[in-house]
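re: the backbone from monday

yeah here it is again, tokenized this time
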């Protein structure tokens, strides 16, 4: 599963869990609040209704024939009808008084119900409920109660005589179906709000998925292109985040690989297949170290090493002219290699920082000239031709600043392979060292001494690691 897909699944899962939990908590809180509000309303109906009941007349009722009974029933129906609403359908309004003969301790007195089947008459036993009637205070059930007539939310309030003493109770029953209907409405409203919120969350999660997926896919495709040999990678990603920094790093790596491939192709074209096979050596690799060791073993025969560090120049070309730098880098590589080959040098190792050329006695076009002198002449040739090349590009308006290419000539030394970075480290230090000392060509003291009869070189200072005094011109 792709990372962006996992992000989408995590976001959707988080949306489901958080929205579901939030809905449950809010619904429970709203349900409890609504139920409590209904309890208060039912209790208020009972309390206000009890105030209009004549306690003395109520006490005189002994049967349905009593004139006080008809007045009581009429009053109870008025209380019921006046308080019926869509959200609270009052079903029963009745009165009861104490009667120790019944388990509940109360008997019915008056009932507003018109149905002969459901009406309770004076003297009928009041049911024994989980929350019994109280004569001393107004109250409402904390939960639904069930009797032979159904399931209800009930409330009651004391009926008091002229002296304030409670003598009876007014009861009010609201159908549980009515209350549950209100709660169901609340549930559906909450579910609708949850659905809308979830749809919005899905939309946001999808937007985040697209936002994350697009740069990841672009980087993935770019890596595949680079792996397939296409180094002209340009990623158009929004700036300022980690994806943009990864994209820039990938583009930089692609440019470096392209530069390396261009150099390898030019080396192969100039020096032939035999030498081109050595150009895949990596900085610090085993082959690199073995090559250096072999050259060290040949020091007694007279061997000179030429280091040309053209990485800064090629990097500047790519930076300033972009894709147009490829043919310019090709021309630069060809110029360097042709200068080496002209004086009998052999390209021994190639790095993205530059190249190492070896000048030995066995060269076919040495003309009897020793390796040190041929290496120094090749170094000056390389510097001269590359400088002409740089100035021409500037005159043509292709470059704004003149690149720098440093060259050095040395003899094999035991310390060379142990030098930090090996051959690649030596090549890397050439440009900065030549610029620091203002000398385009540097040589070791041994090389300067070997060519002193033909070329006079001046001492310009010590190299970075202090191993030997360098000479330049």
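seq for it, each position gets an aa:
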């Amino acid at each position: 599963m792709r990372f962006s897909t996992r992000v989408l699944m995590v976001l959707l899962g988080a949306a489901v869990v958080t929205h579901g939990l939030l809905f449950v908590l809010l619904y429970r809180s709203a349900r409890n609040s609504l139920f409590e509000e209904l309890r208060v309303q039912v209790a208020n109906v009972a309390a206000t209704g009890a105030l209009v009941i004549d306690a003395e007349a109520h006490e005189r009722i002994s049967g349905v024939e009593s004139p006080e009974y008809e007045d009581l029933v009429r009053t109870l129906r008025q209380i019921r009808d006046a308080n019926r609403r869509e959200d609270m359908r009052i079903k029963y309004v009745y009165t009861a008084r104490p009667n120790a003969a019944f388990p509940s301790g109360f008997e019915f007195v008056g009932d507003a119900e018109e149905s002969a089947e459901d009406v309770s008459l004076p003297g009928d036993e009041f049911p024994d409920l989980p929350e019994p009637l109280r004569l001393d205070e107004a109250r409402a059930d904390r939960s639904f109660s069930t009797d032979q007539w159904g399931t209800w939310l009930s409330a009651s309030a004391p009926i008091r005589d002229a002296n304030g003493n409670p003598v009876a109770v007014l009861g009010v029953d609201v159908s549980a179906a009515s209350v549950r209907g209100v709660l169901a409405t609340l549930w559906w409203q909450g579910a609708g709000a949850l659905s809308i919120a979830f749809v919005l969350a899905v939309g946001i999660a999808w937007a985040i998925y697209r936002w994350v997926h697009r740069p990841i896919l672009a980087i993935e495709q770019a890596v595949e292109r680079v792996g397939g040999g296409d180094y002209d990678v340009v990623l158009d990603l929004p700036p300022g985040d980690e994806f943009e920094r990864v994209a820039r790093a990938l583009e930089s790596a692609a440019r470096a690989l392209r530069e390396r491939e261009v150099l390898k192709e030019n080396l192969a074209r100039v020096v032939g297949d035999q030498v081109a096979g050595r150009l895949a050596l990596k900085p610090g690799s085993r082959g690199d170290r073995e090559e250096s060791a072999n050259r060290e073993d040949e020091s007694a025969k007279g061997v000179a090493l030429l280091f040309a560090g053209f990485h800064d120049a090629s990097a500047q070309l790519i930076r300033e002219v972009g894709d147009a730098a490829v043919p310019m880098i090709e021309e630069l590589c060809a110029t360097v290699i042709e200068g080496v080959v002209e004086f009998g040098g052999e390209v021994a190792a190639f790095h993205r920082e530059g190249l190492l050329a070896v000048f030995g006695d066995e060269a076919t076009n040495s003309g009897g000239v020793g390796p040190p002198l041929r290496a120094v002449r090749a170094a000056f040739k390389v510097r001269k031709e590359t400088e002409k090349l740089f100035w021409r590009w500037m005159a043509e308006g292709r470059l704004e600043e003149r690149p720098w290419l440093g060259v050095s000539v040395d003899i094999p030394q035991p310390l060379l392979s142990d030098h930090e970075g090996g051959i690649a480290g030596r090549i890397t230090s050439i440009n900065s060292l030549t610029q620091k000392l203002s000398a385009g060509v540097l040589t070791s003291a041994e090389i300067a001494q070997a060519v002193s009869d033909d070329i006079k070189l001046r001492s310009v200072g010590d190299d970075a690691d202090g191993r030997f005094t360098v000479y330049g011109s």
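The chain has 13 helices and 13 strands. Residues 268-301, 415-420 have pLDDT under 50 and may be disordered.
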